């Protein structure tokens, strides 16, 4: 059992939990994720480790309410327990001094891009961060991102905050005007990562993405998270989740993400009914 | 006179045939996840036990990888001492209810039974299962006396059959034993792989409870290699030895076009969803699974049989079992092949898949196969299947499950740079002891041999426990 020490509602849909998990905190690195299961009937879902505190023995995660499990998770409060927390999983981000990098976070992807931006900054890089979301109330961690970035650009699709644009617009401008960015890191919805990759490919700038495929065990034993990278099948949970974005088959990733769309709806509706009856 | 002879004949025939276990009707059971055989009643068990000749030089015991004293426990059944019989087995085997159900007895203990020469061998597996269940039902679980603490600590990595067996043996030697498991439930393949209808999960839980009662500490959700490394366990956490028994959990795919379409599952994924996550109870349980109408499973082992029979129970109208050799070469347990036939699974033998067909929306809608014929024996001694040119055909399916076996999962071994691996990524360990190239680290089960059986992993666990005891005595490597 893993205790929730802190809960913060970053927006209507985005929640932050700080979870007591001493052993995981001791080993966590930027780019790692973990798997959780709320209760005995629950499913296992992967979430990114957005921060960790080795002294306090805690990990921090940020998630968006999208389906049954994340909605149910959001009803837990400080002092409540999560049944299973498993990690740290996946390969950590490859951090070194590339001189100048761009970190792009979309929606809830702002959370996992933060520890990477921080690690890149600590490694001596100049960090340009671009964070974007559909609208103002989905933007969070502006201050945190600013604290690890040399420059921070905020975009919203509807223009309710920052620049009215998608993240690829300022990214494209930057790559066109200043040809000194050596590496781009992008985390967000698959469609966003796909378009970031299309943008950076034009400028021939290496791009790392963190793939969010469906997972169960997340230790490499089932292959549900398989993705195609450079024509080869890889397991995102153990070979990734970070890959060279220019080699990723994003259409396959998006198709596989939709595999259980009908079942997800059934679970969500049933959960809503149950909650309403209560 | 004639009548008497008839009677004698009848009696002899009876002696030749074992007492069958009653089973659920095939058509009824194909729709539920309840166990197929019901188990013996006490009088049936006694009747079967009396078929045993109590050989002066029993050979059956040699066929058991953990050397259960078979004649002794059968003798106790004859005397009606069922609980004592269970304890007798537990001296050598911590998981009798599991082994009685899933061991391939026809190639182990029962294959060496003298009665098998002229009739059916004694149903040793059925008897083992009976006494284990009887003991559990009557609630008389006996905890053997355990010697005082030795002061030694052993870490066992992986709580499958090998890890559980090793843990049970070491705790009985007085060591402090911790069993680390990556998943949220202990049992390894017993929990995620073998389905409910063959091995009810309450039975696995019961046997793990027994091992906990012996004093073994079970730590779940601990992915060794990520959470702790073997070096950390040995140097920072004070463990004196490690036994690595992580299995071969990396699925093999066919490597044919269309394998990443939606609806194509590795058998590991399909069975993990169904068994560990109880997806067959969706939406009571949150994990979904595709309930295919027409399902094809590829392979001929136990995992293939299990996958096919799970698919059937999830409501499939048609389940094809495609295998590139003929039924005689199938590695699956005979009883399971028989059950699969009875339940209406269609066997497509001498058939190999070539590609999966896309419905245009990223889902599988069919498979193209080719017929095979058996040629010369290959390196494994089995006749090699060769494709028959021009015999391609297509079948319509919406779920495909390759069950071709597994390979070594590198998640742990890649963090053990000083442990020697073979070319295929398996740990190199001495046969008989499980000693690896690293002092204090033992290994056994599928991570050494590649995918094998439950009982062989248990045998490896037992041997490693003996070797660890020797190591503690002499500290010699």
Brief summary of the model shown:
With 278 residues, chain A is an alpha/beta fold.
Q: What does this protein look like?
A:
The complex is a heterodimer of chains A (278) and B (477). Chain A has helices at residues 22-27, 68-74, 110-122, 142-147, 168-177, 190-202, 236-239, 250-257, 261-277, and strands at 2-9, 14-20, 33-37, 45-48, 51-53, 58-64, 81-82, 84-89, 100-106, 126-133, 151-156, 163-164, 183-187, 206-210, 226-229, 232-235, 242-244. With 278 residues, chain A is of the alpha/beta class. A seven-stranded mixed beta sheet of chain A has the order 12-11-10-9-13-14-17, with helices on both faces. A five-stranded antiparallel beta sheet of chain A has the order 5-6-2-1-7. A three-stranded antiparallel beta sheet of chain A has the order 4-3-8. Chain A starts with a strand and ends with a helix. The mean pLDDT of chain A is 95. By secondary structure, chain B is an alpha/beta fold. In chain B, 34% of the residues lie in helices and 15% in strands. Chain B is globular and about 70 Å long. The N and C termini of chain B lie far apart (73 Å). At the A-B interface, α1, β8, α8 and α9 of A face β5 and α12 of B.
Secondary structure: elements and pairs:
The complex is a heterodimer of chains A (278) and B (477).
Chain A (H helix, E strand, L loop, with lengths): L1 E8 L4 E7 L1 H6 L5 E5 L7 E4 L2 E3 L4 E7 L3 H7 L6 E2 L1 E6 L10 E7 L3 H13 L3 E8 L8 H6 L3 E6 L6 E2 L3 H10 L5 E5 L2 H13 L3 E5 L15 E4 L2 E4 H4 L2 E3 L5 H8 L3 H17 L1
Parallel strand pairs in A: 9-10, 9-13, 10-11, 11-12, 13-14
Antiparallel strand pairs in A: 1-2, 1-7, 2-6, 3-4, 3-8, 5-6, 14-17, 15-16
Helix pairs in contact in A: 5-6
Chain B lengths: L1 H15 L9 H4 L12 H8 L20 H9 L3 H9 L5 H7 L21 H15 L14 E5 L3 H11 L4 E5 L8 H4 L8 H13 L3 E3 L10 H6 L5 E4 L5 E2 L15 H10 L17 E5 L3 H12 L4 E5 L11 H9 L3 E3 L2 E8 L5 E14 L5 E5 L5 E4 L2 E4 L3 E2 L2 H4 L27 E3 L2 H4 L4 H21 L3
Parallel strand pairs in B: 1-2, 1-4, 2-3, 4-15, 6-7, 6-13, 7-8
Antiparallel strand pairs in B: 5-14, 9-10, 10-11, 10-12
